[in-house]
Known about the structure:
Elements: H1 2-18, H2 22-33, H3 38-45, H4 54-90, H5 109-123, E1 127-128, E2 134-136, H6 137-140, E3 160-166, E4 170-174, H7 180-189, E5 193-202, E6 214-224, H8 229-244, E7 250-254, E8 260-269, E9 286-295, H9 297-302, E10 311-318, H10 319-327, H11 340-343
Parallel strand pairs: 1-5
Antiparallel strand pairs: 2-4, 3-4, 5-6, 6-10, 7-8, 8-9, 9-10
The structure holds 3,4-dihydroxyphenylalanine.
3,4-dihydroxyphenylalanine is lined by residues 177, 179, 219, 257, 260, 291-293, 314-316.
Amino acid sequence: MDKMLQSLEKQAxxxxxxxxxxxxxxxxxxxxxxxKGKLTNILRGVKDLSAKDKPRIGKLSNEVKNxxxxxxxxxxxxxxxxxxxxxxxxxxxxxxxxxxxPPIGHIHPLSQVQEExxxxxxxxxxxxxxxxxxxxxxxxxxxxxxxADHPARxxxxxxxxxxKEDEKHGRFVLRTHTSPVQVRTMEKYGAxxxxxxxxxxxxxxxxxxxxxxxxxxxxxxxIDKNISLSHLKGIMAEFLSRLFxxxxxxxxxxxxxxxxxxxxxxxxxxxxxxxxxxxxCKHTGWIEFMGAGMVHPNVLKAGGLNSDExxxxxxxxxxxxxxxxxxxxxxxxxxxxxxxxxxxxx
Length: 346
Ligand code: DAH
């Protein structure tokens, strides 16, 4: 009996040590200490032993049970500790994994093209100018040779600003074009001049796919001695070729704008079909691009320049239209309506 108990203890302790998980340990527990367990059976039989054996075997079996119990508790703690360590190791924070970058914006297509336009003109020696969006009637119209009763005013219907008026410059409007900065720049810097003026412009207009109340233009102005339209042709062919990264030709057609004389419209050869004719250029091979001309003597005078000494040319094109052409955007309203799904494509 003593031997049996001792070998049972040895066996039990070995099996406990071998158990690798709480559930395996539970099984061992049931095997020895369960209702029908090996040790339970022995303990149950103690009461039937002879008076001589009972105290000794009773004591021994209790010792064995206590040893086994103690070992169970120990082993359970060991296993739990190992499992915790394992769990923690799974949660290990790998500092070499790239982080999740926070969402940041990107440059709007209008700004991207504006920057490109500025870069190219800058390389050709043009400075970048700015002017107010809320402009006086004087700079927007009179200074550009468009008096109050001039029919050209009808072409550029605009928003008037309530209760803002001054004696010298009249009422205030949201500028209909970037041209007012021509006179402002001449007044401020005199001649010679070589500037472009990108900026936001406004018209009182019913909106549709190709008209919006707010859009962007780029004005150009070159004033010097002995300037002719051939300089304009050269500059524009060079600018457009650099912008589209291919050879682009330009042509002039007569056009009318009160602030230039002679006035003209400039077309460039279609960058999609190289002039062969396609949908973009409506099968003409040419794309209508901008208004331009030799600066009118009245405008030079308004800018404080002597028109006998200096002359120059000016141009104005739609930056918004250029962006639409470049990216094949068919509705002007997409550029300013804040639709992220659309704008994220650029
Ligand atoms: N300001 C004109 C417009 O918005 C465009 C323009 C035409 C500008 C001829 C010029 C120019 O500088 O010479 O329609």
